[in-house]
Records
---
Amino acid sequence: QAQGDEFVGVVLTCRGTCLVQSMGAFRRFSALLGLSGVLGSQDLRKLSLLQWNPHWQCVVWDMNNCVEEAGKAFTAELEKKDVDFANLIEYVNPSGILPREWTNVRSAPTCGLDSLDLVYNHVRWAPADDKPAMKGCMLTKPPDRPYVIQEFVQRGGSGRVVVVAAHFPHPKGYWDRSLVELAGLRDALATFFRSTPTRRVLLLADTNEFTHTTNAEIMRFLNVPGGATIGTELKPSCCYDDGFQPTGAFDRIIANFGASMDTTVLFDPLPVWAREKKDGNEGAFHKGIHGSLASPSVGVSLRGTPAPWLSG
């Protein structure tokens, strides 16, 4: 046990057996020591992913102490679910409240009032080759709807993945499935792929798309290369002001690799602090979506070396 370090919360007593009080803490502990796969290898075969847009009313109205409570809720989910990557949209810069294992990449300040933060576990992941993230706005006239594209490499191994965090524009209408509003992100990805051979892609986004637009259609329009589309279930994450209609599956996590994705809806039932109301109007709070992306059965090798499903 090390005081004041990432190892706090892990207590090992080794007289023939070892007691691990916190699997999440042990994953951080083992990653630091390069012991991935020694214990809990089944857990280590999964990526823990989170997508959430508490919406701007939480920050601007802040009627129910929403800013502080949302921050507490977000950091609690990071730790409880031991998240690898998260996309947090339309919230204040969270850098001052993140637990020590996580770092954020904030979107460009040029997309109007819109913002997002790509949050990652820097104990297990690092920006690949020290390259900066690609940042931009999906709309240009006026600039709006940010995205961040960053390639990451697994610490202690060679596994790489391109993570895309985005806040999509709204389609032109309810039945519009053209996805033309994603052209800016599609072009940015094409440019990004010219600088790297990595083709494993994770998309975490408030897509603003209804259930009749599939995850596969989104990935095809973005020209994400190869592989079957694996995504979270289309759950009604949007929105408080319309009663979370069944078709409002806006928040999604989609990958072009992996075997399966388990889905959990967060903040359900809706907490009191999320029920923003002002001058007779209700806020458009979204419920969070957590995805657990499982690899094929190849598992994870010892000493942090990634399984083939994360290579390339």
Note: Confidence is low (pLDDT under 50) at residues 1-23, 29-44, 298-307.
---
Amino acid sequence: QLPVGKMDDPLRGDVLPWIREAPAFSPGARSDKVFWGRSDSITDEREPMMVAAVSPFGGQPLQEAIEMIELEADFYALSLSPQVSCHAAFCAPIVSAIAQLSVLYFLAFQNENMFEEGKWKQPISPYWSLNVMKLISIVVSLFKVSTELQHAQQLCRALFVGRFQEDFRQVAGWWALALQYSTALCVLFVSLSIVLGATSCVGCFLKIFSVFIIVDMDNLAAKFVNGMIFLEFHVTVDPERLRAFRQRHRERIKGISIRTIFMIMPVALILLSGIVSLYFNTTPLTLLVFGQVDNVHAPKMINIGGCCPPILRLE
């Protein structure tokens, strides 16, 4: 915050010229820390960020800024926060994963998501409007889950080139990354199955709202904790580790970036699951649990006596 006084304030004459002469990237000019964005890649062939800025207080140019990777404020990134203890760094990701997977399990294995009105739910509908709505809902679900994978991508960057004071911090980070990545893929798979099993256009959009809630559970919980306890969600880049990683990247991976790896897997998963589901005309979850089913000889559920409605029990 720069103080600006009245016209006759002598401090004003010192501050305003600096503001006029500051470069376009003024946040870097006022600080010796530069935060990476989501578009920055640790595989880019560039030198560490050099910020040619003039400090308004010391008058000396900042020749090189400290690079920081900013993480998303979620329960998985808590593992790399310096304010979090060792036990909390390992427990926070597993608590978040258990909560998300539990909601996902109860949502996925409801009877109405696989079987309804005496018939198995099938991905191909005789109504073209419903098929179009299913396609749109699947694409929206993919976009939403991809945001969680982008958060995991930032966490992966920090683990590759970050500087950590405690030895356990990097181990906890890889543990959190594995849980976050696997949970995101599970959410994507279940969302594909429940959307393909929808029997109405309104039901398609109502089902993807559950995907939004599950994906944002860890973010909401972390923001709640951050409101009570100050937490830092950024990691300092180690220049030596950054150069070493780029050298290994050039020799082994040959141009395949981390961003590409994190985007290929979810798209390949949803395409493969969708093709198999359409080929057998069975929703992915039903195909996984019961195998291929059809409604050619569907059982007729008869209500005898009029006292109790028929009940379908899946064991």
Note: The radius of gyration is 26 Å.
---
Amino acid sequence: KQPHLAGPSPAIVTRPQWTSPEGGGAAALAHCGAGGWVMSTLNRAQRDKIANFQAVTGAPAKLAAEFLKRYSWSLDQAVDIFFTEGPGPSFSQRAASPLAAVDSKKLDSFFRKYKDGDADVDAISSDGIQELCNDLGISTLDPVTLVLSYHCHAQQMGIFTREEFSGGMHRLGCDDVAKLQAKLEELRQALVDRNACKEIYGYTFQFALDQGQRCLPVEMCVEFWKLLLRNHFALLDQWLAFVEQRCKNAISKDTWLMLYDLATQVKPDLSDYDLNGAWPVLIDEFVESVKSSAAGSAA
């Protein structure tokens, strides 16, 4: 089943919560400058959570600590909010600056053109999204639709609420379909830029989930990986073959996020991969499989 902007999101199974080892100890967290805050002591569990947050988001320690403190040290919630709302001056904000003037009346007409026919539904639903994509000259399977959804802060596949669509168009400086079409190439570049794509990639997992669920079906992840990782992962084809053979259920957020680090931070020959690092088991098994195959070929 291929994921696409206008289509329904799939059934998802539950994944376990992240856990961090508990323990005592204290560490000083230095003052983070004007507007920063001071936390004189952190226990070991909190330090571990900061490290985990940094590992999956690439955020600096200060930002990791701020997010975790804001959400009562819930690692899952802090990471979710980081990827759905952004950390601050994110790719979304960088791409939208400087903003072109947006005419509120034109933007309202833009929204209404694609709005659901049901008067009680103040949103663009799947049919409207299909029509919008047709007018933009793209397929709903085009990965640029994920970038567009990211800018709109869309919460689920197959729908743009008025607030989401209007907010996204304001951020992009677009109040009609022609302006949005002219913006597509710029949005598409996010899929090539490693840092920008990491934001889109992290957002996509949450975007594709059904409400209340925590894992994505393997077949959906495979299609998203084809869309998002082709420019960034030298071992993508081997990974897809491995996952389709070895993983029959669903992919957790931890595995999803850490795969991007494998793709972009580890050498293609995996020579600098640390088997003792905090990698998900599935990724460890993949690396072992690739190295075993390479050793067998060399013998």
Note: Residues 281-298 form the longest helix (18 residues).
---
Amino acid sequence: MTSMLSGMFGSICTVDVTLDVEPNRKTAPLGKDKKGERAYIFTDGEDVSGTAVVSVRPGKKLDHQGVKVELVGQVDMMYDKSNSYDFFSITKDLEPPGSMLESRQYKWKFGAVDKQNETYHGINVRLRYFVRLTVARPYAGNITKEIDLAVQNLFPAPEINNNIKMEVGIEDCLHIEFEYDKSKYHLKDCVIGKVYFLLVRIKIKNMELNVIRRETTGGTGGGAAQQTDNETLTKYEIMDGAPVKDQCIPVRLYLSGFDLTPSYKNVQNKFSVRYFLSLVLVDEEDRRYFKQQEMFLWRKKIG
């Protein structure tokens, strides 16, 4: 019945909503596809404003239960679309219930909007902010239009940023020591370090440095079982061929070319995102030896 009424009334009007943005405002991809849909970037505390248009076909009358615009912050679980969680929502009424005989345009503004969480699109979860225009109708389905915005926030440089120094080995076979210059990096930073081979009695074929993103969802009070996914973002070969005792291999890995976000801890009690440097050695029998070390990522620049 609803779909039939929607068909009868759907052509009476169309709606559109746009954001007020300056021409040079930066954009960011909404999904994992960097060439896909993009959205304008906003930051915490910034106003969000725009224009809403309700276009009524000439000669038609639109009966409605009100027109409103909402700004919503939402966490979606990819594996359970019904489990969307609105952690933030503000509403402005644009038009009281009544009838429209002609098209109308409205200016709207949400001032100094709290946007502490960044937008994120991962394997099993996404966090989005969007503006939704709704024309409520008494008998047919509501007419809605949504437009997403990206949110990125800058953070000050960490006051304490210790280097990472660890030893790893297999008894009487392999003993290495690795060192990275720091433990906290901005998204365009460079990982600088070195690997010392103190004992080598197995035939190492190559060595690589991997950047791994670990996304953890659920299990923090929402009732859903905790799920962890590891995604290898890069495999960077730092040595090809067998090392010898007392050899030192330099490490220099630029982070700017990778799909990185800041580290997120327990966002809205729904998910966390952590990053790891994984040093991997492969021997001639393709056995892999690895050691992971967490690194903290922060945003120094918008875009």
Note: The CA atoms of residues 64 and 162 lie 61 Å apart.
